[in-house]
């Protein structure tokens, strides 16, 4: 089964053409953004349902009681590239903090980490509100080298199961955990952990848990889910691992490329490739988009050079229902940023994590990009601040300064979205009156994720 461009591409293009966004900037007002695109913040019965209905009307998603029945026979070709993905991540070197600080994408990586931190913190708050004082057990699908271990420690969880395809990465994750546990004298106590080297899109992880009766309160899958959409079987196994051992009321969260934005940029490109100085994406063709196995090659400077697969979110939502997972919200990074940065915790963490760079830089500091056009939006914002006699979030009226991302970095990070599903009890009433609600966002969200409007 395929999404034919003749029926579906217009839908893709029209929904995403509105979402031309620029780099982040922090200065203090959320009220001027415009609608950022499809299903912004859509929970069950909201934007997500409208999006699915429009997709069905456009012929992109089949109108039948269970479209996955046909997809099981007509999915992708199977696991052809899994070894290549594993090999890529096994070969990545741990280059250390000094090297990361000098990276062209230093702020981009920190911004993505901030998004994950806020997503994890938001979900842990929801869990503790539902069950104060309860023990929290977490599954990290695609844990990599353990980049989120400190987030779990700060979140005060009790037990973590770390699973990843790349065996070398799992070993490095375990080493990082043991090092962290060895410094337990300060800060929150360290959770217990177990480590599993396994293909989460092919293997039944429940057979590998230390306790065969393990259940989870939270499953996290960060920048990984799209690899499983090589075939229906792999995507289904990934979702089964996510949902099968998740307790009722628990959450499945993650980050993944936004299929709508990828297709929008492809349609706008002259050829099969698009990108900028720090990232590039190449599709194999632009006339037909299979629901599984729709491969594109993604390159991000110094980090990723690997085949990935397009995720059509209404299909993901439908497949997740099989394992009792109901969508709470999906948001673009811009939408999620705007909602989270209004909180004191979010704004403070943004600065501590150095997720945005200061513009203009202080004496002795250099900008991440040497291209002046990467900061045209920031210069325009400075002119606006000067005209009002304001200093921005990082300066004074005499010397205004703002926090921002370069345009190239924002174009890369704005390819992604966050999602949150909740496990529902079997035979539970499907009414939305008692369902958790998505985070509130500004009504206006076409501009970059910032706390005031910028010019492009």
Automatic annotation (TrEMBL):
<dbReference type="InterPro" id="IPR004971">
    <property type="entry name" value="mRNA_G-N7_MeTrfase_dom"/>
</dbReference>
<keyword id="KW-0949">S-adenosyl-L-methionine</keyword>
<feature type="compositionally biased region" description="Gly residues">
    <location>
        <begin position="38"/>
        <end position="49"/>
    </location>
</feature>
<feature type="compositionally biased region" description="Polar residues">
    <location>
        <begin position="1"/>
        <end position="12"/>
    </location>
</feature>
<keyword id="KW-0808">Transferase</keyword>
<feature type="region of interest" description="Disordered">
    <location>
        <begin position="427"/>
        <end position="456"/>
    </location>
</feature>
<keyword id="KW-0489">Methyltransferase</keyword>
<dbReference type="Pfam" id="PF03291">
    <property type="entry name" value="mRNA_G-N7_MeTrfase"/>
</dbReference>
<dbReference type="GO" id="GO:0004482">
    <property type="term" value="F:mRNA 5'-cap (guanine-N7-)-methyltransferase activity"/>
</dbReference>
<keyword id="KW-0507">mRNA processing</keyword>
<keyword id="KW-0506">mRNA capping</keyword>
<dbReference type="InterPro" id="IPR039753">
    <property type="entry name" value="RG7MT1"/>
</dbReference>
<dbReference type="InterPro" id="IPR029063">
    <property type="entry name" value="SAM-dependent_MTases_sf"/>
</dbReference>
<feature type="compositionally biased region" description="Low complexity">
    <location>
        <begin position="441"/>
        <end position="456"/>
    </location>
</feature>
<dbReference type="GO" id="GO:0006370">
    <property type="term" value="P:7-methylguanosine mRNA capping"/>
</dbReference>
<keyword id="KW-0694">RNA-binding</keyword>
<protein>
    <recommendedName>
        <fullName>mRNA (guanine-N(7))-methyltransferase</fullName>
        <ecNumber>2.1.1.56</ecNumber>
    </recommendedName>
</protein>
<dbReference type="GO" id="GO:0005634">
    <property type="term" value="C:nucleus"/>
</dbReference>
<feature type="domain" description="MRNA cap 0 methyltransferase">
    <location>
        <begin position="103"/>
        <end position="424"/>
    </location>
</feature>
<dbReference type="GO" id="GO:0003723">
    <property type="term" value="F:RNA binding"/>
</dbReference>
<feature type="region of interest" description="Disordered">
    <location>
        <begin position="1"/>
        <end position="83"/>
    </location>
</feature>
């Amino acid at each position: 089964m395929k999404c034919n461009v003749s029926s579906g591409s217009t839908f893709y293009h029209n929904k995403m053409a509105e979402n031309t966004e620029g780099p982040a900037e922090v200065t203090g007002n959320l009220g001027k953004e415009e609608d950022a695109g499809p299903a912004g913040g859509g929970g069950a019965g909201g934007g997500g349902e409208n999006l699915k209905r429009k997709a069905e009307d456009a012929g992109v998603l089949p109108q039948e009681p269970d479209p996955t029945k046909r997809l099981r026979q007509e999915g992708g070709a199977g696991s052809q590239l899994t070894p290549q993905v594993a090999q890529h991540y096994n070969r990545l070197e741990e280059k250390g903090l000094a090297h990361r600080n000098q990276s062209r994408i230093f702020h981009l990586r920190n911004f993505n980490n901030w998004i994950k931190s806020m997503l994890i913190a938001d979900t842990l708050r929801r869990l503790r509100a539902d069950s104060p004082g309860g023990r929290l057990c977490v599954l990290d699908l695609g844990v990599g080298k353990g980049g989120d271990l400190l987030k779990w420690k700060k979140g005060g969880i009790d037990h973590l199961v770390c699973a990843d395809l790349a065996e070398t990465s799992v070993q490095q994750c375990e080493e990082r955990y043991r090092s962290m546990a060895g410094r337990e004298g300060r800060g929150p106590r360290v959770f217990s952990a177990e480590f599993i080297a396994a293909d989460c899109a092919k293997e039944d992880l429940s057979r590998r848990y230390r306790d065969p009766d393990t259940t989870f309160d939270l499953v996290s899958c960060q920048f990984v889910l799209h690899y499983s959409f090589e075939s229906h079987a792999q995507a289904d196994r990934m979702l089964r691992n996510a949902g099968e051992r998740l307790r009722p009321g628990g959450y499945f969260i993650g980050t993944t490329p936004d299929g709508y934005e990828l297709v929008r940029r492809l349609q706008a490109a002259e050829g099969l490739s698009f990108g900028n100085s720090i990232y590039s994406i190449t599709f194999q063709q632009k006339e037909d988009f299979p629901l599984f196995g729709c491969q594109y090659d993604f390159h991000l400077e110094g980090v990723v050079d690997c085949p990935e697969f397009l995720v059509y979110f209404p299909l993901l939502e439908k497949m997740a229902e099989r394992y009792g997972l109901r969508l709470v919200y999906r948001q673009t990074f811009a939408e999620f940023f705007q909602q989270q940065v209004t909180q004191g915790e979010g704004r403070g963490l943004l600065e501590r994590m150095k997720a945005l760079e200061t513009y203009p830089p202080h004496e002795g500091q250099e900008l991440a990009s040497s291209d002046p056009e990467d900061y045209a939006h920031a210069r325009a914002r400075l002119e606006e601040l000067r005209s009002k006699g304001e200093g921005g979030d990082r300066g004074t009226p005499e010397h205004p300064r703002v926090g921002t991302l370069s345009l190239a970095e924002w174009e890369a990070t704005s390819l992604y979205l966050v999602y949150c599903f909740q496990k529902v009890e079997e035979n539970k009433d499907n009414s939305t009156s008692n369902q958790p609600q998505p985070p509130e966002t500004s009504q206006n969200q076409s501009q970059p994720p910032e706390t005031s409007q910028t010019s492009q």
